[in-house]
Amino acid sequence: MERRPRSFYILAAFFALFVLFLYGPILTIGILSFQGPQGGLTFPMNGVSLHWFRDLFQEQAVGDIWGAFRRSFALGLMVMVTTVVVSVMAGLAFRKRFAGSALLFYAAITSLVIPSILISLGVGLIFNQLGLKIHWATSGFGSQLTWTLPFGLLIMFAVFNRFDKSYEEAARDQGATSWQTIRFVVLPIIAPSLIGVALFGFTLSYDEFARTLLTAGSYNTLPLEIFGMTTNVTTPVIYALGTLTTLFSFAIIAACLLGVWILGKRRARLGSDAGKGV
């Protein structure tokens, strides 16, 4: 049996430490959320129960948790749809060189290197100067797009750079219009990538704190609500909330991965049928 080199064990140990560093805090919060009714915020645990999960669904004075969740969910959907639509349109537009395309590209991704809190402050100041009301669905929506759109654009640019144009040429040879080519050829081929862009858009928006801090107005999103709870909540109910929101995020990711898997199976089945002349 061939002996593995020492570097293998070093890399394995490093990867194990990385996973522990990444998921250790989440696991700790998940464990502490099952504290008994008399439990506190630290170890050792005082009993095991679902008390704090039940407490989340009861009237309490810790804040508007479910209202904040609904706002974050709605905002995430808005950002997701906008990010997908704009990214696809930009990806199609940038397939051909045009005057100012390089400048426009760098201007679009510059927001990634600007501190998020400055983006939030700038958007809030612009809305104040224009006499517009600062609200999570307007100013908050705009500030979050400065975070999600660059990622969507970069993904779409990479996808279209590798896209085989012969599929479009074949569709046009068959008499398809430009819109029909995009709808029935281009979009089905890039559908898995669109799911990836949608996942980026939703999760980045759902978890965003800094860019929403000064642009959410009077109503908090979920990250802002959780941050507020850390200053006045001294029970494991905040851990229970963290556990549920983490499970929700994992469920969204799992749903997107399932969508990609289904699309892959469908594409393989259609390719097999086409090969058989069905």
Automatic annotation (TrEMBL):
The chain crosses the membrane at residues 7-34, 73-94, 103-127, 147-163, 184-204, 237-263. Signal peptide: none annotated. GO terms for biological process: transmembrane transport. Residues 69-256 form the ABC transmembrane type-1 domain. Its main location: membrane. It is a multi-pass membrane protein. It comes from the Bacteria. InterPro entries: Bact_Polyamine_Transport (IPR051789), MetI-like (IPR000515), MetI-like_sf (IPR035906). Keywords: Cell membrane, Membrane, Transmembrane, Transmembrane helix, Transport. It is found in: Cell membrane. PROSITE patterns: ABC_TM1. Belongs to the binding-protein-dependent transport system permease family. CysTW subfamily. This is Putative spermidine/putrescine transport system permease protein. It comes from Palleronia pelagia.
